[in-house]
Hints:
The structure is a single chain. This protein is mainly alpha-helical. It has two helices and no strands.
Amino acid sequence: MVMSLDLKNKIEKARHSLHMLVEHNKGGLGHPDVIRQSMALDELINEYNRINRNHSRN
Length: 58
């Protein structure tokens, strides 16, 4: 599924960005930028799960 592959790539980039932000903030998980990126990653994962759930039902 092309949509799924594109979304997987977005998830991987968001995960990498989150990792880099945590590193940049010396492990500060409470930093606003880290929290914001974590929330963005969560949304992408939720979208991926919704698509896969709907796809498996059809």
